[in-house]
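Good morning C.,

I know you're traveling, so I'll keep this short. The sequence:
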Amino acid sequence: MKIKFLKAGSGDSILIQDEGHNILIDGGNDSKYLLKEIEVIYANNEKIDLLIITHHDDDHIQGIIDVLNIDKFQKNFIKRVIFNSPRKFLDLLPQNSNSRLLSYSQAYDVENILMDLDIPWDITTENTPDFKIGNMDLAILAPKEIDIKKYAEDKDAKLLSNKIKDWNTDLSEILEYLDDFSQDTSSSNRTSIVLLLTHNELKYLFTGDITPNRLKKIIDNLYEIQNNEKPVRFEIIKLPHHGSYRSLNKKILEKISCENFVISTNSNKDNLPNKTTLGKVIKYANRIDKINFYFNYSEALNKLNISKQDMVKYEFNLISNNEEYGYCF
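The tokens, ready to paste straight into the viewer:
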């Protein structure tokens, strides 16, 4: 199995490939490398077995629009789409709902393209049954249906930007003064799809831009399933919301065990990633060995201004993209 964290601007675009099967999670807001990968899949007479659009945000949707607007990818190339679109969830709301006051912009664009091309799509929640694609077992862990309905009814819903820029703050100072006072509570990010993929008994967690409150409940549930005996083990975790310090907290990290964390962003939006996020992982996450932070853009890694001495002292590595298109596991 290959997992490719593509360079996709400030957002996410993740391509998972195994024995001729292809899963695409989001399209970012720069589709240059995504389109190249899609061309290779098409040339190999393969399909996109599953397309997941995690939520309604430009840096997750725009690249998908770019793909769908290319003629040769419009007929039977994408086998299944999961997209919690406004229109389908509006239909689930009461008739007197004010939800139609909310503008979803690009989400509506995706809906219109899918309908024009007669490509069906499913909505999904944490109650969606688990399913398989080839040797990959997939479980949808979020969102809750109630969170999507609340978002659809919120005429003032908007994405909250990151406010701090901590790239020039010394890591030792960050570790000394860590706190979880500021947390993301935005209704839009709360609706993000979270995917758990299991392959050869190894677990991979793809978090989209999920809020920490929802992520904590997900980890708590997984922890309880294994009788609260040990931290939940993951091979790789894609850090939520491009490494925002407001999307992660101590209570989440203390119940997970992982060495490999991925940050997906070109660092051109909202001062992300935050060095504080790395500090939280370093201090609170359980690990068997050194922690590795993987970046699909070297620019994001370099802006953090972290010294080799700090990496040795606090036992972690910063690893830049290993391919022109991003990072490939």
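Safe travels,
E.
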